[in-house]
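Quick check before the chapter quiz. The format below is the same one you will see on the exam, so make sure you can read both the input and the output lines.
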Amino acid sequence: MSHHDTDVLDALRDSLDGITMDTPVEQIEAAGRARRRRRRIAGMTAGVAAAAGLALGVPTYGNPSTAPPAAGDSTGAGAVHIRTAAYTVDTKKDGTVHATFDKQRYFTDHAGLQAALRRAGFPVLIKEGEFCKGPQDDGTLDPSGVGPGVGNVMKGVRGDDGKVTFVFTPSAMPSGTQLFIGFLNEAQLASVHGNPGSVERLVPTGVPLTCTTQAPPADTRS
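Here is the expected output.
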């Protein structure tokens, strides 16, 4: 007996369940109609559920770029490996986040870079042409445009190819703070002769920040 024949017999056995030789014909016919109705309703329900899933845009997580981060390192963020023309962002097993920026392109997608770093578990606020500070910040910056404490959470490492990789350490961020990165726009870069190219400082979260379009002083160190 084939597998198909066995399935047919099983279905037939199910359809005759509870029926004996003494059961009236009318009752047998009524039972058959009831079973057919139940099967039609079950099929319609499955179809509606599938259609609802499509209509609601239920996501599929086969593509890592659209999958939500899963619990992984000490920050609670998941593994992130993002490649674009402007930047790359990668999480490492030690909990750090490594990023590279293309100097000609990084400020064209600062929102994407911000989202990528946040997804990797690093709290950051990135703007172009604006420079923000917290209510208690005296605005101190070194000649490179870097504020106090930034060196503990962000470091630049130059590779043999000359490319700089920025290493962010989420676990070193003081509680209630985020890293502010303000890229100078083209006019501001011209005013400081391209140095510094950005401002980095630690700012508080959850409070209004004071922002200005005034570029930092040019770095005059030889």
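If your answer matched, good. Helices lie at 3-15, 25-55, 110-119, 150-153, 186-191.
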